[in-house]
Amino acid sequence: MSNPSTVDLNSLEPQQLVEFRKSIDQEINHFTQSLQALQTAQSKLRECISSINNLEKSSSDDLLIPLTSSLYLPGKSIKKNEFLVDIGTGYFVEKSAKDAKQVYDYKITKLNDDGRKLKDILVQKNEILNSVNLVLRKKMIEYESQQEAAAEQQKVSA
Amino acid sequence: MAEAKQQFESLSLEFNQQQNSLNELITARSQLETQFQENKIVLTEFESLNEDSKIYKLTGPILLPQDYSEAKMNVSKRIEFIEGEISRVETKISDEEKAMEATRQKLLAIRAQMA
């Protein structure tokens, strides 16, 4: 569970190295997925901002209200400067266009920060993976040459 | 010898079970963490609002208006509750880890006997 911070990779058995590589692979997968999730969330937030901008820019009050994804009703917006913003866990707050955009901007920057952190971790993990692979390959070569040497000796003694 | 083997098998079964329940606990822990973070975001959002802001709570399919102070209190309560849950799950995790370690030691001892 809790790996001490410094373990010499060279001191590990090949089997242990393979296990270690598997767990790193899993971690990398997990982090890549998280990164993708962050990026989708960001693009959704950007859509919210552009929707607000579009509504502000448009001169007419007409809009189509979606009843289902394929059925729309013509409608008119009464207020163009008041939005209900989902701030999470089921709470919605009434906000002006400016404040609403601020909320989304804040979330986007936060996600950017998190994404950067995730990328750093991914780089680190990939480095570890590379060094594990390197050591593993070296071990394999050593093992093979040992096997050959043993075979040679057997031949000689036989 | 046969007895040791039987013991070894039942112990390794126990070890697997412990591993499974540990995994479940870890999933629960990460779910709690997600909830905790989400609620914290909501609370910081509430901090930046004032008494006059109109707040609605999604209840089933409808939005019900809710008082600022009430909403804020609810979220703070929820954060407290989640923190409690997190520490509860964490003690469970460390207990399970200890139990696993104990089983592992027993397994090793029996394996040494059998060899």
Automatic annotation (TrEMBL), chain A:
Return the GO cellular component terms, semicolon-separated.
cell division site; cell tip; cytoplasm; prefoldin complex
- Mind telling me which Gene3D superfamilies this protein's record contains? 1.10.287.370
CDD domains per record? Prefoldin_5 (cd23157)
What NCBIfam families is this protein classified in?
prefoldin subunit alpha
| Recorded family membership | Belongs to the prefoldin subunit alpha family.
Protein name as it appears in the record? Subunit of tubulin prefoldin
* Xref: InterPro entries: PFD_alpha_archaea, Prefoldin, Prefoldin_subunit_alpha
Biological process terms in GO annotation: positive regulation of transcription elongation by RNA polymerase II; protein folding; RNA polymerase I assembly; RNA polymerase II core complex assembly; RNA polymerase III assembly; tubulin complex assembly
Specify one Pfam family. Answer: Prefoldin
Q: Which species?
A: Scheffersomyces stipitis (strain ATCC 58785 / CBS 6054 / NBRC 10063 / NRRL Y-11545)
One GO MF term on file is:
tubulin binding
**SUPFAM superfamilies attached to this UniProt entry:** Prefoldin
From TrEMBL, chain B:
Instruction: Kindly state which keywords UniProt assigns to this record, in alphabetical order.
Output: Chaperone, Coiled coil
**Pfam families with a match to the protein in the record:** Prefoldin_2
Query: Which stretches are annotated as coiled coil?
Result: 1-35, 79-113
Q: Which CDD domains match?
A: Prefoldin_6
Gene Ontology biological process terms, A to Z: chaperone-mediated protein complex assembly; positive regulation of transcription elongation by RNA polymerase II; protein folding; tubulin complex assembly
**Span of the secretion signal?**
none
InterPro entries, A to Z = PFD_beta-like, Prefoldin
Gene Ontology terms, MF aspect = protein-folding chaperone binding; tubulin binding; unfolded protein binding
Q: Which GO terms describe its cellular component?
A: cytoplasm; prefoldin complex
Say which family it is in. Answer: Belongs to the prefoldin subunit beta family.
* Protein name as annotated: Prefoldin subunit 6
What species was this sequence derived from?
Scheffersomyces stipitis (strain ATCC 58785 / CBS 6054 / NBRC 10063 / NRRL Y-11545) (Yeast)
Source lineage: Eukaryota, Fungi, Dikarya, Ascomycota, Saccharomycotina
